[in-house]
Design goal:
The chain is α/β, with parallel strands linked by helices. The protein has two domains: 238 residues, Alpha-Beta Barrel (TIM Barrel); 54 residues, Alpha-Beta Plaits (2-Layer Sandwich), CATH 3.30.70. 31% of the residues lie in helices and 24% in strands. Strand 8, helix 5 and strand 9 form a beta-alpha-beta unit. The chain is globular and about 65 Å long. It starts with a strand and ends with a strand.
Length: 301
């Protein structure tokens, strides 16, 4: 039985599939979207998170670190990533919970034990389990085994994906997945590469293939002002989706800047500090334009 690396399990979610969902967040993503609101999901390895706003400056972490990797700087008690081995002593001694190791291994059996705790809510609400990330398809063996175990227990399965994965991975998990929440970010291939780090050719190809399969699919479009809410991108998106074999529901997810603090905790720059959430009237305009292509379009997920 394989193990997966996850960074969170969110219970009682109502935005990640039908009914009440338990969302499992897997670490690792092949994309590096400028607007990513889960920076802790991008690396496929465990990481140290430091909350400077919680730190009380006691210095206990520097004394506890066996590698001597933590130094007091103007930005707080910062660990040298080249020396830190994620031993975890600093986390244990911190009285303010300012330090946390993000990412832990879990077996399929262990995950199912966590999921089973919420089975009553699934039964009453028509919910189930959503595998998100990061990109859950970047851990294909663990994801496949976890999906199969859920289906054997008759638990509804949802996969939230950016779509950038080999076709053979989709072929393996499609029969085990009831619903795909599929992100469609930018239609222009060069702009897609600029803002996500990869081409969109594989993404579009996988959407086309999945639209011929039995699994339900909802297209989710993050609306990023000045990047993908342009008339050109909206027109191209509408034409592409209208030409698919199956008519799909479309959800517009408005950009939000809530991740700024997360990036600071990882010591990473946020590349869109000037952006604000799109106003409601703008979302209405985009909904109206995409609806003209015969699509069922909703705001929110």
């Amino acid at each position: 039985m394989s193990k997966g690396l996850i960074f969170d399990i969110k219970r009682y979610s109502i935005h990640d599939g039908p009914g009440i969902q338990t969302t499992v967040f897997l670490k690792g993503c092949p994309l590096s979207c400028w607007w990513c609101h889960n920076p802790e999901s991008q690396s496929a390895a465990r990481e140290m998170l430091y909350r400077a706003d919680r730190c009380i400056g006691c210095g206990a972490c520097t004394q506890a670190c066996p590698e001597g990797a933590i130094a007091h700087t103007p930005d707080g008690f910062i660990a040298d990533p080249d020396r830190c081995t994620l031993h975890g002593e600093c986390v244990l001694v911190c009285p303010a919970d300012a330090r946390e190791i993000v990412g832990h291994e879990i077996s399929v059996d262990g995950l199912l034990k966590e999921i089973e705790k919420d089975a009553l809510f699934f039964d009453e609400s028509g919910g189930g389990v959503t595998f998100s990330g990061g990109e859950p398809l970047s851990q294909p063996q663990f994801l496949t085994e976890a999906l199969r175990a859920c289906r054997e227990m008759d638990i509804h399965t949802t996969v939230d994906t950016c779509g950038y994965a080999p076709r053979k991975v989709f072929e393996a998990i499609a029969p085990l997945t009831r619903l795909f929440l599929f992100d469609l970010k930018i239609m222009d291939p060069e702009l897609h590469r600029k803002y996500t780090g990869v081409s969109n050719e594989l993404v579009l190809s996988n959407i086309e293939w999945l639209s011929t399969q039995e699994a339900e699919m909802i297209i989710r479009i993050p609306i990023i002002p000045e990047i993908n809410d342009t008339p050109e991108n909206i027109e191209a998106t509408g034409r592409f989706l209208a030409g698919l074999p199956k008519k799909l529901e479309v959800n517009l997810l408005p950009y939000h800047a809530a991740a700024h603090q997360k990036y600071r905790r990882f010591g990473a720059p946020y590349r869109l500090p000037h952006l604000s959430a799109p106003p409601a009237v703008r979302l209405e305009e985009l909904t109206g334009r995409l609806s003209q292509f015969g699509l069922s379009v909703f705001t929110g997920g």
